Amino acid sequence: MSSDTTTRRGGNSFDHLDTPTLDAESAGLLHAISEHGGYAFVGMAAQAAAGDFRAAEAAREMAWEQLHSGPWHSVLPVWRNAYSMACLRMADLHFAGGEFKEALRVLDMGLIMGGMLLRKDLDAAVEKVSTRARGDSRVSGSGCNGGSSKSESRLVDGELDKAEMLRVLPQKSLSCKIVVKRSALSLEGFLREYFLSGLPVLISDSMAHWPARTKWNDLDYLKTVAGDRTVPVEVGKNYLCPEWKQELITFSQFLERIQATGSSSVVPTTYLAQHPLFDQINELRNDICIPDYCFAGGGELRSLNAWFGPAGTVTPLHHDPHHNILAQVVGKKYVRLYPASLSEELYPYSETMLCNSSQVDLDNIDKEVYPKVCDLEFMDCILEEGEMLYIPPKWWHYVQSLTTSLSVSFWWSDSGNSTVS
């Protein structure tokens, strides 16, 4: 940012971001930060509030260091809120200079890494910056539509060859017990036949009213509403592999990698996995609905996550603590399920952080090391576009994307389980 944009603007609300929560909470937050030794941050924050961009940048760097000073669960909430504050100051200055993409990037970092105190200010700032950025794109003619044909803008097009599909799946796939499929299953039927008995079920014809069913297979739409937003992605085969890592990239860059993965072995597999994307990007949240099934048991929704990636992405065999509806919006996935009663035979890791994951690689089973696995009975299915799969708590599941795939998972607890994961 150039030096002539480091001075604070006047009172014109059009060229700065409104931060009512920050304005009200700033003094108390800075006092709390100083009580935790953040005197240097407080000094830089004061200069940032007066319009000094370099001070804002320095304050954000100080908070960033605190966020990485130990395990995430041990980071003090005050430093997460400090990071949000610094992001808002930086974004405000970027916005004043007409640097809308830079402002969005900083605001997204505040949403991803920051605390909850200034969440409303961050959300409102994102909405204001996005509106201005799209307005500028339309005026300059640099929008995403660019004359692309309907087929070119589709994320997934065409049918999947079954023989090819079976070649890439684990051994014995689709040869044992197929998960029962029910059309437009009533809530009462779901509760009585599957929820209370703890059995998986595939549900069709319950997502037709979701705007996402048509919108999310349109690359132009996705780039328009989310292209400049920063998201965390996983790079590598899966989280159990040593070469696995995480990166922060824009959603447009992520979409480009998805499209390139199938045509180039040079592009690493990139997966936007188990990320609360819908807390971050409201336009995408408005495209989906919470299924009525998630209110079964009288509990509450625990998490709402995105699982976006190219064909070949794998979530290795593991289990989760909550009830789970996996909704398939775009593309197809293969899912294999083992009941909780078979946990011992699936060789879970002994380490606390991985105790819900199996040591068995279903794509390449070492029969000498894991002799029990090959003879175990399982259920599996192809999760098609517009279908939902109910996975009961503690059921082991392996998931592989057969095409480019956009899925949403809904975790919820029943009234007898109040544990937050």
Automatic annotation (TrEMBL):
Pfam families: ARM_KDM8_N, Cupin_8
GO cellular component, one term: nucleus
Example GO biological process: methylation
Keywords: Dioxygenase, Iron, Metal-binding, Methyltransferase, Nucleus, Oxidoreductase, Transferase
Span of domain JmjC: 264-421
Cofactor: Fe(2+)
Gene Ontology terms for molecular function: dioxygenase activity; metal ion binding; methyltransferase activity
Protein's cellular compartments: Nucleus
Family from the record: Belongs to the JARID1 histone demethylase family.
Record protein name field: Lysine-specific demethylase 8
Source species of the chain: Morus notabilis
